[in-house]
Structures are given as structure tokens and as C-alpha cells.
Design brief:
By secondary structure, the protein is mostly beta strands. The protein has 2 helices and 8 strands; from the N terminus they run E-E-E-E-H-E-E-E-H-E. The N terminus is likely disordered.
Length: 102
């Protein structure tokens, strides 16, 4: 499986594909509220503008993430990344690959 990650943070540079680490991976959009996981990277099919936005928001490989809560109709979802909460639509969160969901 190939993932995307920036070659340099906030540089506006290109995004390149990297090999995923071993282990069970899933999509951030599939995690239930209250679960925690570690970000592996971004899916290879993510549009460049979406990949850039997610990276700028802190969705980078190795970063822990927690699902805080969902809206009543399951969209959008609040995630805790680093020390702040942010809200993403499920379509955006589907581009974030995670492992070790708890």
C-alpha cells in the first residue's frame, strides 16, 4: 500500500508516495467516538489540495488522534490531534490512514 506524506512541512513542495508500515491499518472515518489511533499517513488517492490541508492541520505520520464526537447525522466529526480539536467531514477523514485503533 502506498501512502502520501509531504516532503517538507509547509513548504508548498510536492507530495510523494511512501511505503506503509506493517500492521493493521484502517481509515480515520471508520473509527467510533472515543477511540484512539496513530496516523500512518494519507491515502494515495487523496487529491493534492486535500492532502495539503490535512497535513497543514497536523494529520502527519506518527501523530496520535482521538475521535471526540460525531454530529447526529454522523457528519462532521470532531477529532483531537496534537493539543487541539478540529472538525472534518467523513469524506476528508477517509483519506487519513490509521493503525492501532483502541
Amino acid at each position: 500500500m502506498l501512502l502520501r506524506r509531504p516532503t517538507a512541512a509547509h513548504s508548498g513542495g510536492p507530495v510523494r508516495a511512501v511505503e506503509a508500515s506493517t500492521g493493521s491499518t484502517g481509515r480515520l472515518s471508520g473509527l467510533p467516538p472515543g477511540s484512539r489511533a496513530t496516523i500512518v499517513g494519507l491515502a494515495d488517492g487523496a487529491p493534492p489540495s486535500t492532502a495539503r490541508r490535512l497535513t497543514d492541520l497536523g494529520f502527519t505520520a506518527g501523530t496520535p488522534v482521538q475521535v471526540v464526537r460525531r454530529a447526529p447525522l454522523r457528519d462532521p466529526v470532531v477529532y483531537r490531534v496534537k493539543d487541539y480539536d478540529l472538525c472534518l467531514r467523513r469524506a476528508q477523514a477517509a483519506h487519513v490512514l490509521v493503525r492501532d485503533a483502541q
